[in-house]
């Protein structure tokens, strides 16, 4: 049941025609068997990088020292990697050296999990040396070989095990799980950027609540202790429930996870994760504003849009929806009133937006220049514009130059 795209078939056939072996390998084989669409197709081969470069017209040296060449077919790149034996791991992350091999089995042996260690091509069919199919059918993440050894070689694999379990809805096989619990302190050898990638993939999966496994195995004791405290604390259920109800985007999932922390600690944690400024600021603001209530009338909403900005206010609605759903589930009490309030506010926001109501100074029908001509100077101008904005937010019909000029007299 593995159907390779024509381009992948062609690449493999060309390598075979030159006298070498080539297989689709890893994630693409796993995803095909599961009936999921692979993100990309990785190819493993007995040919050396230099030999791959002789076979194909357009190639890019992606990681020649690790044996990887990217072959360009049209606008798509395919990573082709020579069968590899990873040398000794020195820093719990990277092999000291890699050795090329002519045996597919060597290459499959170095891979992390049985479900990621299968290869396929049309001439040989499926190559499954480690019973990956069996684990796929059982829904299990299991290390290739001895779990403790594999996690000692590369500590990132501990995060990957949990991430794959969340993405696929799989259990972690007992030895593999126990090895993570035992070796969790070595996670401190992994860079925060890599930890963040695995964390966000977990949060954005269909099972974001599996993030709990980062706490249960002890991983988030040695890194990210604040997240550990959320997951191990008395609001843990709150965070896990809210994750389930939150929109599948990093900002909302991080905000759901961290909603019970103090805003300063939210910012600190997100910075620790080396997240981009956009995510740090928006998540922190969502948490900080999560108790804000906006009155159900247009002037109050326009004032709020002015204060928070269009993008954030819509995010606040989204965040609030998840908070309400979470409270309903945890308390078992229907919050019909809160839900209706949010629906009304969202409809009102659409109305205000469609009408183009004035919500900021540049929407005013009068400019600083107009006020200068009128005779105002320096700080008076900004102050007057703000006052006029206040009036117009209250009553949009007054947003007309002549009316505003007349109003200035009145304000002064
Ligand atoms: P995804 O769908 O997330 O891309 P994937 O299985 O393709 O999943 P990649 O990180 O793209 O994962 O890696 C491709 C393959 O390389 C994996 O399937 C696995 O066989 C191998 N691999 C990747 N990272 C490691 C690692 N740290 N240790 C051992 N093998 C690894
Ligand atoms: Mg991949």
What value does the average pLDDT take? 96
Oligomerization state: single chain
Distance between the termini: 79 Å
Strand content: 5-15%
Low-confidence stretches: none
Cα-based radius of gyration, to the nearest Å: 28 Å
User: By CATH's scheme, which homologous superfamily of the largest domain applies?
Assistant: Beta Polymerase, domain 2
Count of DSSP strands? 11
Helical proportion? 55-70%
Using the alpha-carbon principal axes, give the shape: elongated
Number of domains: 4
Count of alpha/pi helices: 22
Q: Tell me the strand order in the biggest sheet.
A: 3-4-5-2-1-8-9
Domain CCA-adding enzyme C-terminal: 255-407
InterPro entries: Bact_CCA-adding_enz_type3_sf (IPR050264), CCA-adding_enz_C (IPR032810), NT_sf (IPR043519), PolA_pol_head_dom (IPR002646), PolyA_RNA-bd (IPR032828)
Family: Belongs to the tRNA nucleotidyltransferase/poly(A) polymerase family.
Protein name: CCA tRNA nucleotidyltransferase
